[in-house]
Input
Amino acid sequence: MRETKPLTAKVYSHVYASIINAEINANDLLTEASLAEQLQVSKAPVREALIRLCEENILQVIPRMGYRVIQISPLQIAKLVETRILLEVYMLNKSFAILGEVELTQLDNLLERQRDKMQPNQPVLEKWQDNIDFHMMLAGFCGNEYLMDSLHRIMKTCAGAAAQCFLNGYSRRNREVEYHDLIVQKLVERDLDGATDSIRKDIRELL
Output
């Protein structure tokens, strides 16, 4: 079993990236056999990876046929946005008093690294990973690993929702770093209301 784990991770990463980058869409039927042949692996790691994606509510099983991407409805998107705002605003309020020069420098350095690697045709998954990295770092200062785990799972679901909404190269959303800069600026100014307002706008504009 241990030997299949790196292959499971390989299959998982391939399928997840293909979904987020809109290379796999809602009409595509995935099968263990076709993926095993495509990736030149056995069916066992493929099955493990697909089951994991089902557990994360990214794929669903179609009995006797295969797997398909779960369609996210407008109502579900609204719930994702609401949940992210509630979580992230709470976590920022919890950590605000202890945010100092060290933490703000960490956020600044992250944004600088993200700016350095930005490209006009950057894949959706890379943009989303940058977005996740920023929000997870900011949320992490609250020190609650259970909230962090919940937020990370929600962020991954949001990535799938964004891929479904913006199949044309993520064209409506290209301002993550601008909003993130504004959030950090408000934190430097010790403006909690301004920072939380920027977080809300960032999340709402995303979806």
Remarks:
- Strands lie at 59-62, 66-69.
- The longest strand covers residues 59-62.
